[in-house]
Amino acid sequence: MEIKVGTVGGSSPIGRQSDDTGLESLQFCEEIQGLMTIPAENASSFTALLELPATQALELLHSPDSATAAVVNDDSVHHCIKDVPKPYFSAFNCNLTFPTNSGLIERVTKLSVLAKEHSPETTSSVPLNSSVNLEKVKNEPTTDTDSNPNPLQTLISDPTVENTNQRSAKRKEREKKGRGSTKKSKNESNEDAEKLPYVHVRARRGQATDSHSLAERARREKINARMKLLQELVPGCNKISGTALVLDEIINHVQSLQRQVEFLSMRLAAVNPRVDFNIESILATENEPILESNFPTMVSPLMWPEIPVNGTRQQYQPQWHFDGSVNHQGWARDEHNHHNFSPPENSLLSYDSSANSASLHSNQLKMEL
Amino acid sequence: MANSKSAITLLNSTSSRLCFARTSATFASAPPDQLKRQSRRIKMAAYSSMARVAGRRRAWARALLFRLHTRPRHKTLMRRKRRPSTSSDDMVGKLRRLLPGGETMDVCTLLEETANYIHCLSTQVKVMKAISNHHLSKVN
């Protein structure tokens, strides 16, 4: 749960929606009324905020240049607002009984509205009826940077510890606080159920959890899997460790195979072409099995575009021996587009018969297999 | 069964095309340039049949067929006119240049296609070895 919250929340700019807060403040007041059931036992952060000099607090709450400070303040402000008892909020906009200026409270409302505003777009899987509590749960782990050491932040968590510690401390604090409200725990479990199909990559403790890191880790795992498959494919490559050596071996293997094809084509060209060959005899005289290699991803093979019916095989079979003495122009012309055989001439009949007999023999072989 | 079927189809088409390519040339007492041209034709036929058997879904097969059909036929099959200058020093760049159509792939696709290409090439080598052994045994 924490992973995704950290990923989506950590990468969103906070202070960019400071224009439409006036409209949201009204809605905010209504939602604050729904929040009042939470017991106020952790009001120390708010008092800490109030204990600051007013100028410093305002500066902290303002600071648009550093988003982290805004997040931290936002978080603390959430605590504050949640923990302030109801009578203070009934007199929210007029005169407050707190010993502070009203500008600070306005900042507080603005920031909380901002937090409520930016959370649905960062976590798109949230249902629309989620309350402020859920959004607060989502917003809290966004305080994952420690670039702003201030006394306000030390109340919430230590600014110098790493991300996960901070988040665990936060979670502890939240659990301690949310014992009374069953609503929050229900929201959390709901969130857990929703997050499950989204998190495909697990981040261990200490690993980065933003989305780029997760994607990069997934890509690396994919590459490693492919590399392992290739390592099984290339002979003598199992014992080698190291990506560069394995790649070198793969490259050598592919090069040797291509050279072998070249050499074999030269050898076949040197062979007397008048020799008739029969596929059955080839397969009979074959020492090593051709079919031992498996094709796990090979698509269904392309059959011959046109194969004469089986009854014509015996008729064309005597012309099989005229392979070497057929009309050269016809062969040379058809060689360059040998994927479409549309033979008007007589000389192609022997070719078709050869293909036909070959396929028939292969069918026989398949039956034997 | 599908594996054997595809191998047989490859064998089928390769043998037919090799026979086809051989018959276009003259006999065994040919001058060396004709022999060279003939071997080039055989190689073209072999690669074309291999790419066709591998299917259009494979990127290397598509690239190979495209190269075979767009190249003028007096050019050598596997020679490239212009090597891509980018990423030529590392291993992935080498593999990229080795695989047909590998210049435009990312690394994951490149490795996957390389696996399939090695499969097909090894089968092709076996088929051509079988055919040439058969011919040599017939001649001798």
Categorize the overall geometry of chain A: elongated
Oligomer status: heterodimer
Silhouette of chain B: elongated
Rg of chain A, please?
Answer: 37 Å
User: How helical, in percent, are the residues of chain B?
Assistant: over 70%
Residue stretches of chain B low in confidence (pLDDT < 50, at least 5 long) are 23-28
Q: What order do the helices and strands of chain A follow?
A: HHHHHHHHHHHHHHHHH
How far do the termini of chain B sit from each other? Answer: 35 Å
Overall mean pLDDT score of chain B? 75
Q: Could you give the count of β-strands of chain A? A: 0
Helical segment tally of chain B?
Answer: 5
Structural class of chain A: mainly alpha
Counting structural domains of chain B, the number is: 1
Radius of gyration of chain B, in Å, reads 16 Å
Helical content class of chain A? 55-70%
Summarize the biggest pleated sheet of chain B. none
Order of helices and strands of chain B: HHHHH
Description:
- The complex is a heterodimer of chains A (369) and B (140).
- With 369 residues, chain A is mainly alpha-helical.
- Chain A has 3 domains: 2-199, no CATH class; 204-271, MYOD Basic-Helix-Loop-Helix Domain, subunit B; 291-368, no CATH class.
- Chain A is built from 17 helices and no strands.
- Chain A has helices at 2-10, 21-34, 44-51, 54-62, 67-83, 86-90, 102-122, 132-139, 151-156, 163-177, 182-195, 211-233, 243-270, 279-285, 313-316, 328-334, 348-368.
- The two termini of chain A are 54 Å apart.
- The model of chain A is unreliable at 1-26, 34-51, 63-100, 112-170, 175-189, 191-196 and 274-369 (pLDDT under 50).
- Chain B has helices at residues 2-23, 32-54, 59-70, 91-98, 107-139.
- Chain B is mostly helical.
- Chain B has 5 helices and no strands.
- The longest helix of chain B is centred in the C-terminal third of the chain and has 33 residues, at 107-139.
- Chain B has one domain.
- At the A-B interface, helix 12, helix 13, helix 14, helix 16 and helix 17 of A face helix 1, helix 2, helix 4 and helix 5 of B.
- Chain A: One of its GO terms (cellular component) is nucleus.
- Chain A: This is BHLH domain-containing protein.
- Chain A: Residues 117-198, 327-346 are annotated as: Disordered.
- Chain A: Its main location: nucleus.
- Chain A: It is found in: Nucleus.
